[in-house]
Amino acid sequence: MSNSNSCLTTLFSGGGGGGGGFFSKKRPKRNTSSRVNSRSGKSSSSEPPSGQRTKTDVTMGKRIALFAAIVPTSCSLVFLASWGGAFLAPPAANAREEEERFSGSKSSKRTSAKGGSSTNVENEGEILSGKINLNGRRLVAIGDVHGDFPAAMKALEIAGVMDNKGEWIGKNTVVVQVGDVMDRGDAELAIFTKFLRLKKKAMKEGGDVIVMNGNHEIMNVMGDFTKMKEKEESSGSGDKGSSSANSNKENASPDSNSTNESSNESEKSPLKKASEQFQNEDPVIQGVRARRELFQPGGAFAMKLSKHPTVLQVGDTIFAHAGVNQSHVKYGFDRINREVSLWMQGKIKNPPDYIVESEGVVWTREYGGKDAGVKYEAEACRRLKSALALTSDPEAKRLVIGHTPQTTGVNSGCKGAVWRVDVGASRGIYGGTVEVLEIKGSRVRVLS
């Protein structure tokens, strides 16, 4: 094992890979008996009883804040460079391969899924939709995954759209991940790559895999990396078992257009070019500068994110990372998506107000429920009802959000008008039990 991997193993897992890591902390296990088990098919109520969490590991923020005075300087530099650059010391060779595919893959023209979409906006040769028609297709919502590859893959398996070999089996299902793939974990690019590869296969069968922009994607494009080292109130851990199965998933169906090292400079992977550009610098500065180079507006990864919607209506369900209100509906989802995309591409100078203001679509906490500190949601429910009423063809019945980790798992509020799907699944949050939301016609249920 290399010095960098040895340092990271010690810091994150105490040499293991699950609990017992640096500043680890235990939490009691949450009761999940009221869920639908995707393997057994047993049904449950949509409103789970409150309960508690599983054993958890500690967050990246706590380690960054406290380990510098304890571990050797060499380990500190490797660790900080890894979270700053996200690619200088990746956790495993397979994750590195996924990241290279994402960063080096060429954009392809998107074909419309069965059922089509309406009111679309041109975006770098692809289509960025503000509304997608379901036409009877099954819909699945996945919450924030924050760089945790095993958690993201487990969500896809629970949803019944990916098998244990990492292949698409969802037929014409439409999957929407509500954003915040970025930060707090070390496999963010591998996750993006897997979603993209599954998307291509899903669309051949009339399905789709849509990854949205959350506040963490927005922050990275703004050059704000503070959330990668933010001290969390909750500590986190995850599954101790990760590895051989997930390794197989990462390697399944490799793309044919992976980067060739002998190719000319214009075809070289952005990861490789960035690491070469800053290779003689201090590792910490190298990581931060390289990451900023890649995610700044017009940068290689910002261009990838510019193809992701920020707010979206799929059938009679609205998706936004944090929420929507009347002003967002009146302004237009297409318009919001277009302006965010143009900013990420570096074609307009400033990010749109709707993604930076405190009540914006990726920031508001008013629909987050008790875990967002909302004691009385009646006023928020009235605002949501008014916003839903402004939609049409069809009129939206519900809003699905992430953003605020839910200590009771996926749950609903406002009499089913809002569904919260961020379960804190990433080990960078608190390694919550993975759950997803399934919508088939008028039936909405939680799968676990």
From TrEMBL:
Protein's name according to its UniProt entry: Calcineurin-like phosphoesterase domain-containing protein
Positions of the Calcineurin-like phosphoesterase domain: 138-248
Chain ranges passing through the membrane: 64-89
Annotated PANTHER family: SHEWANELLA-LIKE PROTEIN PHOSPHATASE 1
Keyword Transmembrane helix belongs to the record: yes
Compositional bias (Gly residues): 13-22
Name of one Pfam family that matches: Metallophos
Any GO MF annotation of the entry: hydrolase activity
Segments of skewed composition (Low complexity): 33-51, 235-263
Keyword tags: Membrane, Transmembrane, Transmembrane helix
Region listing for Disordered, in residue ranges: 1-57, 98-122, 229-282
Compositional bias of kind Basic and acidic residues: 265-275
Polar residues bias (residue ranges): 1-12
UniProt KW Endoplasmic reticulum keyword: no
